[in-house]
Each structure stands twice: as structure tokens, then as C-alpha cells.
Amino acid sequence: MVQVQARIATHESKGVTLLLIGTALLYLLLFLGLPLFAVFYEAFRKGWELYWAALQEPDAWSAIKLTFIAAAIAVPANLVFGVAAAWVIAKFEFKGKSLLITLIDLPFAVSPVVSGLVYVLLFGAQGWFGEWLSAHDIKLIFAVPGIVLATIFVTFPFIARELIPLMQAQGKEEEEAAVSLGASGWQTFWRVTLPNIKWGLLYGVILCNARAMGEFGAVSVVSGHIRGMTNTLPLHVEILYNEYNFVAAFSVASLLALLALVTLLVKSLVEWQAKRSGEPLHHG
Amino acid sequence: MAQFKAHSVLPGFNLALGYTLLYLSLIVLVPLSALFFKTATLGWGGFWEVASSDRVLSALRVTFVTSCAAAVVNVVFGLIVAWVLVRYRFFGKRVVDALVDLPFALPTAVAGITLATLYAPNGWIGQYFAEYDIKIAYTPLGIVVALTFIGLPFVVRTVQPVLEDVEAEVEEAAASLGAGRWAVFRRVIFPALYPALLTGFALAFARAIGEYGSVIFIAGNMPYISEIAPLLIVAKLEQYDYAGATAIAVLMLLISFGFLLTINALQWWVSRRGVR
Amino acid sequence: MSITIEHLNKQFGSYRALNDINLEVNSGELIALLGPSGCGKTSLLRIIGGLDVADSGSLLFHGEDVQQRDARERNVGFVFQHYALFRRMTVFENVAFGLRVKPKKERPSDAEIKRRVHELLSLVQLDYLADRYPAQLSGGQRQRIALARALAVEPKILLLDEPFGALDAQVRKELRRWLRRLHDELHITSIFVTHDQEEALEVADRVVVMNKGVIEQVGTPDEIYATPASPFVYQFIGNVNLFHSRDHASWTGQHGDAVAYTRPHDIDISHVQQDATALPVEVKLVRAIGSVVRVEVSTQNSSELIEIELSRERFELAPLANGDKVFIRPRQIRVFETGAQHELSAA
Fold first, then answer.
1. In which band, very low, low, confident or very high, does the pLDDT at C339 lie, cut at 50, 70 and 90?
2. CA quadruple C76, C77, C83, C88: dihedral positive or negative?
3. What fold does the segment set B43-275 form as a domain?
4. Which residues in chain A are closer than 8 Å to B206, comparing Cβ atoms?
5. pTM here?
6. Cα separation of C197 and C207, whole Å?
């Protein structure tokens, strides 16, 4: 008797349950499901031929290449930084540590547009180093290096943020054990630390890569939108859309949507693997 | 003098810290400091002139009002989504759960053109509203839609783990003391979720303020009506008004910083009240 | 290898973890560092192992100062409290680790490593677990693997931090006897940290009792139990009754402030008054616990309870019941003059 009452009191009635599930699913359908479907629908609206044609355009190809180049530089750069920062923060006690953690998060607090703006202020024609750069015939802004820099900036915290809580939770006893067994610093890192953080590392790399390839605001400010030269995929989408070339715009967009889906899939797999190996990732 | 660093047998401190600080300075700190030096060249008068111009003020108003509205929508529906994902079982739940992160993974430009297409007066969703003479795309309402999309995962992902940690025993205890379901939620569960909801709100809000890519396609970008502050920065840049663009950027940073400080204080106040 | 520690100090911020520590450990000895948590015993162990550095003082291995030597060059085996097994390596790879990371010219061949690891795994009787991962082992098994891993590099000194701390009572007892036997076989100079007096007294050749960063006493288990050097040792090891001079001047035999300690089994009970120092008391509780009988008595005018332990035979010769009026007299008693400090620690 008592038990039946308790069960009723800790669960909602059938009607409320269905209403809540319905509301949640409708909300997600309107804001997530429908847009995702619409990208592909709009892309294939006029058939396969136009879709393929849009993707085979030289400008689209150079956008794809530039997007990969930017990510291929930004992700490893932030990977090395993330590991170094997490090693320092998680394995050592020193003053100013919490300030350092806050500073690493800074790029998340800044608008993407501002992330691009700061590099224009430094390296633009009227920037601090602008005169010196143009005197030496070096072009950073409205050129590939600026795009790479802006991409690094906006993806800066991703990997560090994933690794810091993970390595803090793992403590430093295993590393101390390795050292007391005679291992050198590199041996300790490669044989003990790295295997312990591999899932967290992969997780961070996936998120970092998704953002690096998809970044729009920051890259837009430093790119100059030179077709076939300084356009990344998202910028190419914008140009096509603004030219009312909707099919082409959505065709290119569908590539990016596919990237997002792959990202979500791999991310779920990594989460699942990490959980299975008894080392759930920390999300924050 | 107290030591800077506690002794450790683990190697690599100097190398790793040195690299961390160098990289942080080169990529983040030095560029960001340029923002403030550039603003300083304007002087107080110049800064004030930019800050108090009608167009800047209305852009800031649009940005903060729409961001706030989107964050509120996300708090309400994010809570429901988190609740449903944690408490109920239904077909396809794992896919839905994974899909919640879509806004993190989908490039903002893609979100922007898609939402603009869907919510345009002739779009799949927009057409139903058009019947009632409600325009969504190319109005501030469209900005709210885009910002809601962008901020969707934040509240869900901050509330979810907290909700998982709410012990069934506490609920059962409250129920056994005679509390009805609604009373249990209001008095036992909701207070536990309150800090997470606030955090989720703050994160969604902060992200929305800076958002650019998804908004510009759907906003219509009419000065004084649906022009957001980040777009105004880009506009000033395109006119080579670096100082003006920078001033708006600094203004935005200051306002959102003040706002987050308020949220933190509120959070602190809430958690302190919880302890008492 | 012997260890000599002289005037060792260590401070963490304003907290004095170690205060002028002097200790001599003989070659082949098994030493227990015993004390309550925060007494500095783990700090001392970590300093010996090179995982921490002392602020001042000297640390010699076999007469040679090793303070400037890295942990990896000290040839010390360290067994961590939570084992610190490498979670992504099999048991075999865990034990082989110390051999695999040796510089190329000292590194044994793969076949030799294989032989040595299996030898060690047999020594700890866990050869059949070689391919498992640490997460698949029980606490006791992890403990033994951690020990095998430490032994793999043939350390001259073995340091164990709370080796049985995380295990349940039954496994603890088994493992500590096993550790003693292992030590008798290998004769490596070993130091282990524990907060469990029973463990220290049962396993160690000599026990070092520490409190608040200071060594209170060093001695064989017998000495520590029979002749505690300070009120702290008296209270920390075994059960004890405590008498203040102001109430029991006839026992403490001093006029100043003093405290007397006596073990529950060092008190005689009699139905007749033995002599003038005997104290009239009333029996409050009688309880047989295994081979001993515990009796609680109190004096007429105070509520303080005195604990007495009798062997079963002795009790059966002169049975007692609640409410009996009897006389007690300590066979052995130690008196310590109290400074204000002892008063505090006794309170």
C-alpha cells in the first residue's frame, strides 16, 4: 500500500509524461531536426547533377582545400598547447594556477568577430605591424596566415579544457610510480600519461576540428573574401547564398552538415569507448 | 619568501609552463591587449562619441534583448529536454541525446542560411506564421530563433548531470512525507537544479551576445531594428574605421563581463542560501 | 642498505610536517612508521624515496648523501597507497615497466624480461593474472602486483605507503603475514607507513612512533608496548587507563601535576583489600570477549570508568558480577609529569 503510493508520488502521471516527451521532441524537431533535414533537401532540390556541379566548381575546391589547411594547422597547434597546459595545471602545484585556467578560457568569452578584429588591429594595413609587414611584402590579413591565426584563436581552449579536468581527476601517482621505477620524463609521458588520456584527447581533437572547419565570424573578418584564394567553406556558402545561388549554397553547406554529423557520431563513439574502458570523460 | 611552485619529481614543469605562457601570450593575450590600446587612442571623448551614437546603442539593445530572450527560451525548454532525457525511456532516445549537440558541431553559417530559409515568409515554418501576419525571418524575432538554436545545448548539458545526481531517495522521502508530485518538483528537485539552470543561462547568453554567423542571414540587418553589435563591428571595419569597431568591441566585452559578474554573484548568493 | 637520517625538517606553508627527525635504519631491517594521520610519516617516506625534498637535514644511504639524487637514480622501490598501477597496461607490462625503461645498454633482452617478470609474478603468487588489466583485479591482488612491480628493478630499499590501508580486514591480516614472510626471504631494507598499531607491532622488526612531525619513540614492538616513552605512545598503542595525580596521589606518588598510565591487563582485582594503595570500586559491567574478559569498574564518588582485562582462567577462579564491591591495584604503572601540553593531549 505504502509502496504503491510512493511510486505514484515519484513518477508523473501518464498524461504529464507524454506531454513532456511530446514538448521536448517537438522543440528539438523544430530547432534541430527540421533544419538538418532542410540542408540536404535544399541541396538536392534540383537533382544530383546540379549538386555535383556545385561541388566540382574550382572555387568550391579551393575553399575545401583552404578549410583543410586551416584545420590541419590549428588542430595540431592547439593539441600541443593543450597537452602542455594540462600537464602543468594538472600535475603541479604553483601560484597563479586558477588565473592561468581563466586566461585559457578567454577566447570562448570573446565574440568571433572580435577574434578576427584583434588580428586586423595587429597585422592589418593600419595595424601595429602593418607598415613593417607591407615594407617587407608580407601579407597576413586578407591572406591565408590570417585565416589560420583566427582559426587557432577561436579553437584555442578546446583541447586544454577537455584534458585539464581529466588529468586532474587521474592525479599524479602513476607518473610518480613511473619515475620511481626509473623512467625518464619522456618515457613517463609517452608510456603512462598519453595512454591514460587518449580518449579525452581524441574527444578534444574532434570538437576542435569541427569548430576549426566551421568557423565563420572570425575568419570572415580577416579573409577579405577573395574567391578561390581566401575563402573557406563557410565563407563560400555565404557568397553563394548572397548571390541567390541557393542550390549551390546548400550543396556546399551539406558538406559541412555531413561533417557535423560525422563529428557527433565519432564523439558519441568516443564517449561510449571512454565509458566502457572505465574512464568517463568530464564534461563542463 | 614563499615558493612559487611546490616540489615535484615529475619533470617538464619549466618547459611546459614556458610553452603554455608563450603560446597563450602570442595567440591570445597580446592580440586582445591590442583591443584596449586601440580604444585608448580614441580618448574618452572619442570613445563616448562612438558608444553613445544612436546606431551603436540600438545595436547593443537588439543584441542583449534578443540574447536574453533566446537564453530564457532555452532555460524553459532545455529543462524539459534534460528532464525527458534523464527520466524517461522512449524509442530513439540515444539519437536524440547525441543530436542535442548539433549546434556545437554545425557551422554557424549553415545554421544561418537554413534557419533563414525555414522561417522566411514562404518557408516551411514561416508560411504558417505568415498567415497570421507574423514575420519571423528578417526581424528581431528571427534573431531570437537563430540564437535559440545556437544556445540550445548549453542548458541541457549543464542540467543533465545534475538531474542524474538528484537521489531518488530524497524524492521518495519527500513523497513519503506526503508531498505531491508537483510539490516534490518545486521544493526538492528545482532548488537542486537552480544553480545549473543559472549556469546554463549564463553560457547560452554569453555565446549569443557574440554570435555572428547564424544571425546575419536571418536578421535582415536593418540599422536601428535588427542590426546586432557584432555586425556593426564588421560594418565599421569595412569602412576602415578601426577605432570605432574596436570601441564597440570593448563596450560589448565590458557589458557582458559585468553581466557575467552579476550572474556569478547571484550564483554565489543562491548557493550560500542553499547551505543555510 | 642502511639509511641514516639526521636533523631532517620539512615545512608545508606554515605547517611543520617534520621537525628535526633523526633515525637509523639497519640494512635488511623491516621498519614501521606508525602514527595518526597528519603526523608526518608519509612525508618522511616520500622524502626517503625522493618524491619530496626536505628543507634541511641529511639523508644517507649506506653512508652516502642521496639528497641530490633524483628519485629515478635512488634505486628505491616505492609501493603507493592506492597502488598507482598503470591502468592501460596489463599486469605483465606493469611489472616489466621498470625493466623496459632502462637505458639501452642496461636493458635486459625481451626473453630475460619475460623470465624475470614471471619469476616475480610467481613470487607474489599471481602468475595466472599476467594478461589482466588492473581494473580486473581485487584490492589484495593489486597490492601484490604493485609490490612485484617495485621489486622488478631490484631495489636496495623498499618503501610502502599504507600498504594495507585500502583492504578489508580479512585480506589485510593475510597480506601482512605474507609481507613478513616475503621480507624474511628477500631481506631488502624496508620501511612501511601505517596508522594501524596492530599491523606495526605484528609485522615490523622495529617501530617508529610519530606524532605531529616528531619521533616519539623508536623500539622493537615489545619495547613500544611494554615501555612506552611518552603519554602519546601509551595512548596510541593498546588500551590504557589514565589516572590524574590529584585523584590518585597514592598511585602516581607525586605531589605535582602528573598522569599515570596503566594497561587494562596490568590491574589486579581482589575481593579483599590487598594493601593501603588498593582502590575500592564497584563492578559496572562484565563482558567476555573471546579469550579475555573485560570488566569495567568505577570508584564510588566519581563517574570515571576504569577498564580491566582478565584472562578467562583468572576470571573463572574468582568470578565477578555487576554491583560487586571489589578492590583494584595496578601491577604496573607509568607516571608522567604533566606540562600543560600533556594535559591537552590527554583531554
1. low
2. positive
3. MetI-like fold (1.10.3720)
4. 109
5. 0.86
6. 9
Contact C51 A180 (CB under 8 A): yes
Res. C341: pLDDT tops 60: no
Give the domain ranges of chain B. 1-40, 43-275
| B158-215 tens-digit pLDDT | 999 999 888 777 787 877 777 778 888 888 888 888 889 998 999 999 999 999 999 9
Percent of chain B with pLDDT over 90: 50
What grid cell was written down for C164? 594495507
pLDDT at A151 > cutoff 90: yes
What are the residues facing C218 on neighbouring strands?
C208
Stretch A80-91: mean pLDDT: 95
Contact A158, B72 (CB under 8 A): no
Q: How many residues comprise chain A?
A: 284
Q: Which residues of B touch C53 (CB under 8 A)?
A: 7
Report the chain A residue with the minimal C-alpha distance to residue C94. A178
From CA C251, how far away is CA C100, in angstroms rounded? Answer: 65
How much is the pLDDT for A8? 52
pLDDT reported for residue A7:
47
Structure confidence by residue, pLDDT tens digits, C253-275 = 666 677 888 888 888 888 888 77
Q: Look at the alpha carbons of C231, C232, C233, C237 in this order and tell me if their dihedral is positive or negative.
A: positive
Chain C contacts of B5, Cβ < 8 Å? none
Contact (Cβ atoms closer than 8 angstroms) between residue B99 and residue A243? no
pLDDT reading at B58 higher than 70: yes
Q: Quick check: B7 and C53 CB within 8 A?
A: yes
Rounded CA gap, C88 and A124, in Å?
49
CA B162 to chain centroid, in Å, comes to: 19
Query: Distance between CA atoms of C39 and C16, rounded to whole angstroms?
Result: 10
Residues C284 and C307: their CA atoms lie apart, in Å, by 10
How many Cβ pairs within 8 Å bridge chains B and C? 8
Chain C residues within 8 A of B7 when measuring between CB atoms: 52-53
The Cα of B126 is separated from the nearest Cα of chain A by a number of Å equal to: 12
How far apart, in whole angstroms, are the C-alpha atoms of residue A23 and residue C337? 77
Please tell me the predicted confidence (pLDDT) of residue C336. 82
What is the reported pLDDT for C255? 60
Cβ contacts of A209 within 8 Å, gap of 6 or more: A71, A75, A263
* Angle subtended at Cα C213 by Cα C69 and Cα C208, rounded to the nearest 5 degrees: 80
Residues in contact with A217: Cβ distance below 8 Å, sequence separation at least 6, in sequence order: A111, A112, A113, A115, A116, B108, B210, B211, B212, B213, B230
Strands C157-161 and C189-194: parallel
Chain C environment of A173 (Cβ under 8 Å):
80, 82, 84
B127-148 pLDDT tens trace: 999 889 889 888 999 999 999 9
Q: Long-range pairs for A89-92 at CB < 8 Å and ≥24 separation? A: A89/A164, A89/A167, A89/A168, A90/A163, A90/A164, A90/A167, A90/A168, A90/A170, A90/A172, A91/A167, A91/A172, A91/A175, A91/B8, A91/B10, A92/B5, A92/B6, A92/B8, A92/B10, A92/B13, A92/B17
What is residue A14's predicted lDDT score, i.e. its pLDDT? 84
Which residue's C-alpha cell is 556558402? A237
Confidence of residue C301 (pLDDT cuts 50, 70, 90): confident
Chains touching B (at least 3 CB pairs under 8 A) are A, C
What distance in Å separates residue A277's CA from the closest CA in chain C?
9
At residue C226, the pLDDT reads: 86
Query: What is the reported pLDDT for B1?
Result: 39
Q: Which of residues 62-101 of B touch A (CB under 8 A)?
A: 77, 80-81, 83-85, 88, 90, 94, 96, 98-101
Query: Which of B1, B5, B7, B10 is the best substitution to test chain C (most C C-beta atoms within 10 A)?
Result: B7
Nearest CA to A116 among A90, A85, A143, A146?
A146
Give how far A109 is from chain B: nearest CA, Å.
Answer: 7
